[in-house]
Structure formats: C-alpha cells, structure tokens
Design brief:
Largest sheet: 4 strands, antiparallel
Radius of gyration: 21 Å
Strand order of the largest sheet: 4-3-6-7
Number of domains: 2
Helix content: 25-40%
Strand content: 15-25%
Length: 245
C-alpha cells in the first residue's frame, strides 16, 4: 500500500465511482476537482497530525499507510468540498443535499478509521520518482520498453513504484539511473517490459543506491511485477476526537 505522503490518496476515478454526475457538475459549475482533492489531502494531513500528536511516542504522517477507510475518508471529504463549492455558486438545494450526504459519509469513514486504527510503518519508503532511462550500447531487441523502479529499505520492504518511463531502442539497450535515494532506502529494484501493465523485476539482487542498471540483452519475464507500496508494520489505536468535518 502507498504511504499517505506519496501523493493524493484518491483520484478522479475514485470520486466518479461514488458520484457519476461529478464530472458534469464540475464542468457546469467551473470547479477544479484536482484542487479539491489537494485541499482534502491538506485537511486530512492536519487532522491526522492532530490524532498522532496525542500519542507517545509520537509518530508522524510520513509513516501512515493508506487503508480503505482512509481512502474513503479522503474521497468523501473531496466530494463534500466539490458540492459545497457548487452550492455556494448556485444556492441549489440539490447540491446542498449532495454536500450533506457526503459530509455524513466522510464522518462514517472517519469513525471507521478510528475504530480499526491507523496503519503505520516503522521505516517508511517513499514512492520513487520516474527514473532516468537512456539508450546505450547493447543488444536488447529493438522495440519500445517501459521501465519503473522502487526503493527498498534495510528490512527488504519496497515502496510504491514510480510512474513508468518509456523508451524506444534500436541496436542498443537500457541504462537506468534511479536519482537521489531517500534516507530510508538501502537500495532499489528495477522493473521493465514491453507493456506498461506487464513489467517484471529485472535485478536478482537489490541494487545499491547511486548505482545504475544496465539492462542485459535478455529481458526477464518470469518474475513479479512492481508493487503498490509497503504493508503496515502495525495498526496504531487512536483516541476518539470530534473531527472538523
């Protein structure tokens, strides 16, 4: 699972799965849904920080792992913000109804999160940035390749994989450079394939930070694909407080 700090918890597809009219409403009312997703993320960050600040020793939001309850909380909070904006534009009771509905659903998701606890990891590994991939001298079959990577901590836990890079080769191979390693990374894994949905791991051993990867002439195809991030190390019980919405 991804970390809370890896990026926006939910996206447009998550919102439209809960409300099929969202895109139409956003277009008609001139609402930037991406902005509302970011604002909802900021609000959740503040509220998670308040929850975690009550604990000793105090964990921080960078250790929080996204769970279904947390994802739903963010989704419903973003929808509440969208329909609050729509209502303020038109004072339309239909929008007010949607706003209130999603506000209640956000509260239920929050309550569920408190009930089950916040998933945490001891040694968080952030999602990797898209690696630099260039063609260099080698014998990889000509074609278009997709390449991604993920950081690995000292315990062997892998963070969320990067958005893949794409490159077309001709009489060459791939040279992959990972970029600057986060403090928690002990190495990295590289994944490649001719289909972005079927990339597989290429390295047999974790690659040290700062070391590049030169793709052999034969693309490995039998291994596992990139993951979505770390599993929680533990679930943190939290005291129940009244949320802001």
């Amino acid at each position: 699972m991804a970390l809370f700090t890896d990026g926006t918890v939910s996206g447009m597809e998550d919102l439209t799965a809960q409300d099929s009219q969202l895109a139409s409403v956003a277009s008609v009312e001139g609402i930037d849904v991406t902005q509302k997703l970011a604002l909802a993320q900021d609000e959740l960050r503040l509220e998670l920080g308040t929850l975690l600040a009550r604990l000793r020793p105090q964990p921080y939001t960078g250790c929080v792992v996204i769970t279904p309850a947390l994802k739903l909380w963010h989704t419903y909070r973003a929808l509440t913000l969208v329909y609050s904006d729509a209502y303020n534009n038109q004072l339309n009771d239909r929008y007010a109804g949607k706003r209130d509905q999603f506000h209640k659903m956000a509260k239920r998701a929050y309550d569920k999160l408190i009930e089950v606890g916040i998933a945490m990891t001891v040694n968080p590994v952030p999602q990797a940035a898209t690696p630099s991939v260039v063609a260099t001298v080698g014998g990889l079959p000509d074609g278009t390749y997709f390449v991604t990577m993920a950081w690995v901590n000292a315990a062997g836990e892998e963070g969320a994989a990067a958005t893949p890079a794409a490159i077309t080769t001709a009489s060459s191979t791939l040279l992959v450079e990972p970029g600057t390693a986060p403090k928690t990374a002990a190495g990295w894994n590289v994944y490649a394939g001719t289909d972005p949905n079927q990339m597989t791991i290429q390295n047999a051993e974790v690659i040290p930070p700062g070391q590049t990867w030169l793709q052999p002439p034969l693309l490995a195809t039998g291994g596992r694909g990139p993951g979505t991030g770390q599993s929680p190390s533990y679930v943190q019980p939290v005291p129940r407080i009244i949320p802001r919405g």
